[in-house]
Specification:
Blueprint lengths: L4 E7 L2 E13 L5 E5 L5 E2 L6 H4 L1 H5 L2 H4 L4 H7 L7 H13 L18 H10 L11 H14 L12 H14 L9 E3 L5 E3 L1 E2 H13 L5 H16 L1 H4 L5 H8 L5 E5 L3 E6 L4 E7 L4 H16 L6 H5 L3 E5 L5 E7 L5
Antiparallel strand pairs: 1-2, 1-12, 2-3, 2-10, 4-7, 5-6, 8-9, 9-10, 11-12
């Protein structure tokens, strides 16, 4: 059976496009509060998992040793827009570990978001570097962890490298999903290992991160530090005009939300003890954004004081080139 429609695009008085997907919300104990679609089917969480991947940076003591504060910790879990402050942060984190951007193995690309940044680089003749990669913060975190622990940095992305073993064990412990099967492992766009796991397990892992339930005191403290850093410095997580940055800014440190490629999203409201995970079947980020905002409204309830702020992200106008509204992108019942 097909997954339900979670978002639609209208034009005039007709539905022009639909997006199917699955979404699940869980409470602090991992109990399902609501779900739509096949939430037991494994998905690649992609970059929505970055906070989990950053845990060894904090737990190992590397973050403290290098003097990393909220901006660095938020950046370690970022999918950033390659704005000048992001690129500078990647280089600064590496410098503290005695490394340079040449040690990154994530590849180089032009900024994926923000025509202004691309235009400024083109005018100045600035070619994209590895520090411009939207995952350079995650990779800087891997490398700093390696340096602090004396782990070889030459193959820090290899499945057998100790920092990747730590990451894999962390994900398994948080989600309860076994990641050792060959069909569960792939590689992300930045060349780092990525693991498929059931969407509901992904949500339960983030519920543990948000609440500390079922975690030892050290891991709970590290998770709280990373999540609070991201909510305190949302610009470092994404960038100007980005959904993650704008929603976390609007919610003023009370909601964590993170995108992943191919229409994946995770969200938590730590004070409410809930977490959500969502996957849009066709990989459309536009649909995943409005659907995760709408799902947050649903799980927090109609009387929650954040409802007006969150609801404003659950739909957006479709405009023509003259600026007139001609339709709407909105979440539908499955995610509402």
């Amino acid at each position: 059976m097909a997954n339900p429609v979670i978002a639609e695009v209208t034009r005039g008085n007709r539905t022009e496009s639909i997006h199917r997907g699955r979404v699940v919300a869980v409470d602090a104990d991992g109990g399902i509060m609501f779900s739509a679609g096949d939430v037991d089917m494994p998905v690649y969480p992609r970059s929505a998992l970055k906070l989990m991947q950053a845990l060894p940076l904090v737990e190992s003591g590397a973050a403290d040793a290098f003097g990393f504060g909220n901006k660095e910790l938020a950046f370690a879990g970022a999918s950033h827009s390659s704005e000048p402050a992001h690129v500078a942060m990647a280089r600064a984190m590496l410098s503290k570990a005695g490394l340079t951007q040449d040690d990154l193995q994530c590849g180089a690309h032009w900024p994926l978001f923000g025509l202004e940044t691309v235009a400024a680089m083109a005018r100045s003749g600035d070619a994209p570097s590895r520090a411009h990669n939207n995952c350079s913060g995650k990779h800087a975190g891997f490398l700093c962890t390696c340096v602090y622990q004396g782990i070889d940095t030459d193959d820090y992305l290899a499945d057998g490298n100790d920092v990747q073993r730590q990451v894999r064990a962390t994900i398994e412990q948080l989600t309860g999903a076994a990641l050792d099967a060959d069909d569960r492992c792939g590689h992300d766009g930045c060349s780092a290992p990525t693991y498929a796991l059931p969407l509901v397990a992904f949500a339960r892992g983030f519920a543990r991160l948000a609440t500390g339930n079922g975690l030892d005191s050290m891991r709970a403290k590290a998770a709280r530090q990373l999540m609070q850093a991201s909510m305190a410095e949302p610009f470092m997580v994404a960038g100007t005009g980005r959904f993650c940055t704008d929603l976390m800014t609007a919610c003023a440190g009370r909601v964590y939300v993170k995108t992943g490629a191919e229409g994946v999203y995770v969200a938590t409201a730590p004070e409410a003890g809930i977490a959500l995970a969502l996957k849009c079947d066709d990989g459309a980020t536009r649909a995943a954004e409005v659907a995760i905002a709408s799902a947050l409204v649903r799980v927090l309830g109609p009387d929650h004081d954040l409802k007006p702020k969150l609801a404003s992200f659950a739909k957006r106008p479709v405009r023509d080139w003259n600026g007139a509204q001609v339709g709407e992108l909105r979440a539908v019942t499955a995610a509402a």
